[in-house]
Design goal:
The chain contains five helices and five strands, in the order βαβαββααβα. The strands form two sheets. It has a three-stranded parallel sheet. It is globular, with a radius of gyration of 13 Å. The chain has one domain. The chain is α/β, with parallel strands linked by helices and 102 residues long.
Length: 102
Amino acid sequence: MNQIKLITINLITKTGKFANNKDKAREIREKLIFPSLKRGELVVLNFKDIDSATQSFIHALISAAIRTFGDDVFDMIEFKNCNESVKRVINIVAEYMQHNKE
């Protein structure tokens, strides 16, 4: 029986405590998230020790995945160790993308 591989991306090592660089988000998406999703792996985005994230960072990180994989992407990506501020931003971007899928 094949077990689905779990890929954990510890964002603090790539962003620092304030995740605001959308170019860095795009790099994470293209080099880590998309290849893993295309291989059928589950991706854990670990926000441990991140104090806050901008909407543009989260948008650059996950919007293309939502466009590509649709709502199924939320079964393929787990957002872990998010504080209330980060959760709020992720929810804003996710809701926006679910209503604007062009």
